Structure formats: C-alpha cells, structure tokens
C-alpha cells in the first residue's frame, strides 16, 4: 500500500535527520568548548601580566567580576525552610490503582489507539 511506503521513507528521513542533529550538536559543543578555553587562556594571561583591560580598534577586552553566586557543598545542612518542595502526581501508582478499579479523585484511565505498520 502506498501509505506504508511513504511512511517507511519518512521514517528513514527522520532517522537521518536525528543523526545529523546529533552530529551538529556535537560540533556546536566542541566549538563552545574551544571558545571557553580560548577565553580562559586570555583571562589567565591578562591576570598574570596584571592587565585588566585591552583596547584595540576592533575590540575592548576586560576582566569583570561576576555577580555573587551561592555554592552549597552540603545540602543536608540547609534548614528546611530554605528548601523548595514540589509535589508531582505518581502516574505509575495512579494507573495501578485505576486498573485495580479503585477511585482516584482528579484522575481517570484513558485508552487511545494508534496505527501500526509492519
């Protein structure tokens, strides 16, 4: 049937595109790493030589302090009132209960269908 052939070709295209996305993503990550290393090397050289600013016709390069950030080496020592708690419905457990015929307020068992081509 024509639909099945078209679906098979589209599936191949999808796989090829996903592989290309992975390849390009890896390339972008590599370039990002190179930029980070390049900037760190320049900053190190400026700090060693005591320079905080370099001005050229094209660029102004300077070292700037970043905003303060919080580091937490041991989360267990943080008081509870300074922690965020989120509750998320346990869909697996809810599904089990609904399949057993038990009532779960705010939840219902939903069954859908989809087309399969082999």
Give an overview of the whole structure:
- The chain is built from two helices and two strands.
- The chain has helices at residues 2-49, 91-99, and strands at 53-55, 60-62.
- Strands 1-2 form a two-stranded antiparallel ribbon.
- The model has no long low-confidence stretch (mean pLDDT 95).
Rg computed from alpha carbons, rounded to a whole number of angstroms: 28 Å
Low confidence ranges? none
- Provide the β-strand percentage band: 5-15%
Instruction: Give, in order, the helices and strands.
Output: HEEH
Number of helices: 2
Strand order of the largest sheet: 1-2
Whole-number average pLDDT? 95
Question: What is the CA–CA distance across the termini?
Answer: 12 Å
How many distinct beta strands?
2
Number of domains: 1
Helix content: 40-55%
Largest sheet: 2 strands, antiparallel
Derived structural class: mainly alpha
Shape descriptor = flat
Q: Could you give the topology of this structure?
A:
Blueprint: H1 2-49, E1 53-55, E2 60-62, H2 91-99
Antiparallel strand pairs: 1-2
Which structural traits does this protein have?
118 residues, mainly alpha, two-stranded antiparallel ribbon, Sipho_Gp157
In short:
The protein is mostly helical and 118 residues long. Helix content is 48%, strand content 5%. The protein has a two-stranded antiparallel sheet with strand order 1-2.
């Amino acid at each position: 049937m024509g639909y099945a052939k078209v679906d098979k070709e589209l599936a191949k295209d999808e796989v090829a595109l996903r592989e290309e996305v992975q390849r390009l993503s890896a390339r972008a990550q590599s370039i990002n790493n190179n930029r980070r290393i390049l900037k760190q090397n320049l900053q190190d050289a400026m700090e060693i030589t005591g320079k905080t600013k370099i001005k050229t016709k094209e660029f102004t390069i300077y070292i700037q302090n970043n905003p303060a950030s919080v580091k937490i080496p041991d989360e267990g020592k943080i008081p509870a009132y300074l922690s965020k708690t989120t509750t998320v419905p346990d869909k697996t457990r809810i599904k089990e209960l609904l399949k057993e015929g038990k009532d779960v307020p705010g939840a219902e068992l939903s069954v859908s269908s989809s087309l399969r081509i082999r």
